[in-house]
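Input record (one chain):
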Amino acid sequence: MSAKYKNIPPLRAIKAFEASARLLSFTLAAQELHVTQAAISHQIKNLEQLTDVQLFERFNRSLKLTFEGRLYLVSIRNGLESIEKATRQLKSRDTAGTLNISLLPSFATKWLSKRIWRFQQQNKNLDVRISAFEWLTDFKKDDCDIAIRYSANPSYPGLKSELFLEEEVFPVCSKQLYESYEGKLTTDRLLNANLCHEDFTSEDWHDWFDAAGIQAKPKLRGTRFSHMVTMLEAVENHQGFALGRTTLVQDDINRGLLAAPFDIKIKGQMSYYLVYPENTEGDEKLQMIRRWLMTEAEQFKKSIKT
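The corresponding structure, as predicted from the sequence alone:
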């Protein structure tokens, strides 16, 4: 081994330490790694001899990391994650020919997934990877070209943000439920209807009833959902009314799956932004997807029926 890496222990010892530290058990670590408990103990002992540092406090039926062991675990995990990520990327993609987009699962499901095929038809030599997660991508660590972020304050150091789509919030229901009212659905009747609520939202039913000039009870009953897409799935299956957001419901309204019974809308506090590192603004792949997304956004705005 090169002198540069002379202090790197054998990988099997590193894996034995990480599993033991995570599980605080040589027995469980051995089961996870499909080796004997004696083999795990041997690897840990060798690692402690190599570093001349005690990594664990050993008791009759338990383990406890020493202070030095806790510090070492943090660094080891970072190293293993970097190796795993590098290997995964090497196996699964051609870096030069892949465009990586990060966005929320709800926006990926209800908006981008219905359109991305057009980009791929126009750019057949370029693969697309859509990473849909609730958390924000870290451009310094993650392999990401552009993110579509949902924010009220799109200010990120070292990143450029461009307004992509704004949205309005308004009641929606299935077309079948709407037709069941036979033209007699009024805003005040919603007070006694089955209302669906999203737990994590910046606008709620009280905001909309205020805009409609209706005094609602302090506590509105109904079904609560932790995720917008799950709530909209219930609404499409005739299970009540929900506050829909333009970007997530307009396509289904246009297709006749949902109905928007009222013209009263409130402006969403948050919007979608295209976000990417300032130092990659001239990247050809980035500009290709950026131009395409902006074009799709303009077409989407035209599809919104007044």
